[in-house]
Amino acid sequence: MSLTVADLTRRAMTEFEEKLRQQHEDSMHRELEALLTTTNKAEAEISRKDFDGFKKLFHRFLQVKGPSVDWAKINRPPEELIQPYDRIKARGLPDNIAVSLNKLAVVKLNGGLGTSMGCKGPKSLISVRNENTFLDLTVKQIEHLNKTFNADVPLVLMNSFNTDEDTKKILQKYKHHQVKIHTFNQSRYPRINKESLLPIAKSMGTSGENAEAWYPPGHGDIYASFHNSGLLDKLIAEGKEYIFVSNIDNLGATVDLFILNHLMSQPADKRCEFIMEVTDKTRADVKGGTLIQYEDHLRLLEIAQVPKAHVDEFKSVTKFKIFNTNNLWISLPAIKRLQEKNSMDLEIIVNPKTLDGGLNVIQLETAVGAAIKSFNNAMGVNVPRSRFLPVKTSSDLLLVMSNLYTLDAGSLTMSKKREFLTTPHVKLGSSFTKVQEFLARFENIPDMLELDHLTVSGDVTFGKNVSLKGTVIIIANHGDRIDIPAGAMLENKIVSGNLRILDH
């Protein structure tokens, strides 16, 4: 059989690409080994485990070309695989729900810093309500659960090298609470130069010239780092069967007894190993990952995996009606099985970044929910929006600090006095980005029970006991300032121009 010139060219190209890939991989391995020699033995042992995971990810990154999904194979999941929450709730609870609670551990993803909100240190230590931080609220919720049901639900924090030290210092204050708290660290991976595909780190240090050389590789790393830490085996030995995983900044992610009961009441051969809580998309959620049916499996589809030509379709609220809240219920024995068989194939998210000095780097990351396709009898539960209450910005912070919510035993619930179940749409301008600046602009938080929409732009401050209703837009032009006077009631108003209130 004779080969055409095109065939020969293609074969030569493939061989060339393969050699290039091998060179990149060899160079990477050499660099990583050299880095390990720059630290002490104990550190090197931990980092070697991290690097083993990184090498696998890097190997797969070099193999992958183009989008990881074939758009034509994407289908909406069959209805039975995404159950409405009301159907699960309608089954009620058994008298002995404490037995199920004792088989649960709560894991909070605690790797993030508060930098996007202008705060130093872990995001979980920002005060969000009545001087309570995200971590305080989490501890109070679980303690309340343990006391109410006389149960033993531990809290597990997945820290990163950015948050571990500060978090551990704070944990002392919960010593006398009825919650066992465990921590483990997610991996530390090297950022790689976009051109050379080699680490930018000069040593294993994390300060000075190396301050930007490392990153925590996304929450998909939970499986490997949880397993490597020994904590997975410890919890299984203590009789724990499931973990409830969520972002620590999602104030709606509390332990739901109905979902827990659903998991525990399945027959042994039909045990559901993974539940993803999803909720209906609104215009604000168009970038959120969604559940699809793909080659007979439920699969998480993230915007980063979508071919450019289909991004608008992905964002449509009609075709993909739900998105992932990142509240997940996962079987511990199943994680152990999949980790030991090395059969959790998580899609790689390539996250390009430009460092302060202008250097272009890439971070290879994975998402915790992407593992859904590897677990048996996985399903989605379409939960009420109230289970998704993330605080990512000062606009979110204004909502959770206001009288729209009431706080009880660490849990925030929408006030009974609000007539609509939806939260108002709040957009605060750049003068409010940092928490300190945000707090300085409010003498106290306005009454927002009847608010639908608030936009604030420019140099604006709020006096005491202001009330906002309907749609309120306040715009101070550059160089102007608007002081909303104490006791003001703004209903369906646009305020612009200049309004100064000075102390007499």
From TrEMBL:
Pfam families: UDPGP (PF01704). Its EC number is 2.7.7.9. The keyword Endoplasmic reticulum does not apply. GO terms for biological process: glycogen biosynthetic process; UDP-alpha-D-glucose metabolic process. UTP--glucose-1-phosphate uridylyltransferase catalyzing the conversion of glucose-1-phosphate into UDP-glucose, a crucial precursor for the production of glycogen. Homooctamer. This is UTP--glucose-1-phosphate uridylyltransferase. It comes from Oreochromis aureus (Israeli tilapia).
